[in-house]
Write a structure and sequence with these properties.
mainly alpha
Length: 83
Amino acid sequence: MDQIPQIAGAILILIAFGATQLDAMSPHSRVYLALNLVGAAVLAVVALDARDWGFFALEFVWALVSAWGLVQVLRGRPPAAAH
């Protein structure tokens, strides 16, 4: 049963990634950032429960960065472009 949250979190992140690769979604859109935030948060909780510290660190930081980007977009300040 614990596989369902893992798969759901991964699917959310992969939908966002795939959509940006196909130019169907901007990496600065609310939807992209929300998909990444929710997916990474779910995976972080799963990793924390399993005491998988490397995976937890990755997903926790991924969720934080996504949350930061989403807050910036909601405030009308899109995140800076990557160089």
